[in-house]
Amino acid sequence: MLNCLVIDDEKKSIKILKWELEKFNKHVEIKNTFTEPLKAIEYLHQNKVDFVFLDIEMPQMDGFEFLTHFEDRDFEVVFVTAYDDYAIKAIKAKAFDYLLKPINFDELKDLIHKMMTNIEQNKIKNLIDDKIQVNVDHHIELINKSNVLYCQGDGNYCHIFLKNGKSYMISKKLKYMESQLNGESFMRIHNSFIVNLNEVVQINKKETMLKLSNGKSIPVSRQKKDMVFDKF
User: Which residues of 176-194 are buried (b: 16+ CB within 10 A; e: fewer)?
Assistant: First the structure.
């Protein structure tokens, strides 16, 4: 199901687009509609949607200015406008697509199909991105990143310790695992250690150690201690 928002300063345009989208109610859910861009901005900062159908020419601000209020945009944009001279600007704004008013049903149908395909592809990509590949005994293990407790470097090798008690040794330096475990949950706290910050249960600033959920205490380097302890 695609969660969508419709933003247009004309109520009639919203009504028409909403009516057309409701023909695809098995795939599309309209979470809300707005005639005032500022109220839509406030809504989007507090709620998650997949797609925003956005008018370009509006009195408070145009559609392009609207998008400047989102540094890390987590929704796709479909511009909906009565004018066909914004296509290049829409591409530069990284719009998902561009619809001309009055809405053509066949074009909208193709767009919905494209939107559904995009969502499915992103789901697959996210599943892949959430796993790391580990070569073990001539086969490849796929490990969920969230299951990694900590990693310990040992020269040209790296030990990976999981929450379920399993561990693996791979012929990669710790820097490799640092690149694989990118994100806020993991941090290299020492030349030899990367830890899952979600698994820290105790902080010892005096001895500069972090205790993990399995009881293991990991040292924090002098150079990293301020940055590490600021995380908690």
Answer: ebbebbeeeebbbbbebbb
Least confident of 50-54, 92-96, 137-141, 225-229: 137-141
pLDDT, one tens digit per residue, over 151-172 is 999 999 999 999 999 998 988 8
Residue 37 φ/ψ, nearest 5 degrees: -55, -35
DSSP state of 83: -
What is the Cα–Cα distance from 198 to 187, expressed in whole angstroms? 10
> What whole-number distance in Å separates Cα of residue 13 and Cα of residue 64?
19
Spatial CA neighbour of 1 closest among 115, 103, 126: 115
> 60 - beta bridge partners?
none
Upstream peptide bond of 102 is cis (omega within 30 degrees of 0): yes
- With 0-12 CB in 10 A as exposed, 13-18 as middle and 19+ as buried, what is 88? exposed
Q: Transcribe 49-75 into DSSP letters.
A: -SEEEEES--SS--HHHHHTT-SS--S
What lies within 8 Å, CB to CB, of 105 at 6+ separation is 20, 23
